[in-house]
Amino acid sequence: MNISLVDFFFPHMCCICKRHGNYICDECKKLLKRNLPECYICRRLSPSHTSHCSCKKQYSLDNVFVGWEYNKMSSSILKLYKYKNVQDISKVLSEFFIEAIQKSSFSNSLKDTLLVPVPISYFRKNERGFNQMEYITKEISKQFGLEITTSLIYCRNSTVHQASKSKNERYESKENPFYIKDSYQHSIPGYKSITLVDDVITTGNTLEKITKVIKIHYGMDTVVNALCMFRGKPYYLTASQLSH
To answer: Residue 94: how many CA atoms within 13 Å on its side-chain side?
Structure first.
């Protein structure tokens, strides 16, 4: 039996049930609740993961895939991954995420798309030591034969964690920290769409800010999609929020 000294002294343990073996054991994978295909804006069913025309605004995303419901179980996975610097879990997550995408109809929306992991600021990247979504996006790129860039969108520094903000604070936030890098100011020919890849979608405010930057630079007809691992239970917007 071949086992490294690191694995011998610090064995992998399921971050949910604490069984030894894997960061997410097979039994706990079954407990994660799959997210139904929906319009990410109104949270009602949309079999093709497409945003309803009646819901879309100027800078809404066109199609959004979400893997699983964000709850205490998935939260424990992401906290281990993002804040405790356990990068090995990225391999398990990427394989699990790719399998969910392959089983869905969303794979059709990935044809000739450019994959873009949602960027984090230099401050946040330096704090964590890595951007947790870059590895997962690279694995998706390999599996589906798609191109990826980590140098399209840049994020200005911020010392405030998104996780520390309430849903209303995120939704009402007007600041846009994202912008197109100089080398991509002109065009990105040859792609049918741009697909953003992120870990958690809450109100969609962050993704829409990136979408706004992309559509302003490359045209309002640019198709912008998203692949997200987790999202919480439906958060229905009030009438006043929908009218804004």
So the answer is: 20
At 27, phi and psi to the nearest 5? Answer: -65, -40
Is the distance from CB of 150 to CB of 119 less than 8 angstroms?
yes
In one-letter notation, the amino acid at residue 161 is: H
* Cα 201 to Cα 63: distance, rounded to the nearest angstrom: 13
Token code pair at residue 65: 């895939």
**Any idea where the domains of the chain sit in the sequence?**
35-243
Instruction: Convert the pLDDT of each residue in 178-190 to its tens digit.
Output: 998 766 666 677 8
Contact 73, 31 (CB under 8 A): yes
Q: CA 168, CA 237: separation in Å to the nearest integer?
A: 10
Give tens-digit pLDDT for 2-32.
444 444 444 577 877 878 777 788 888 888 8
Q: Domain 35-243 adopts which CATH fold?
A: Rossmann fold (3.40.50)
Q: What are the phi and psi torsion angles at 226 (to 5°)? A: -150, 145
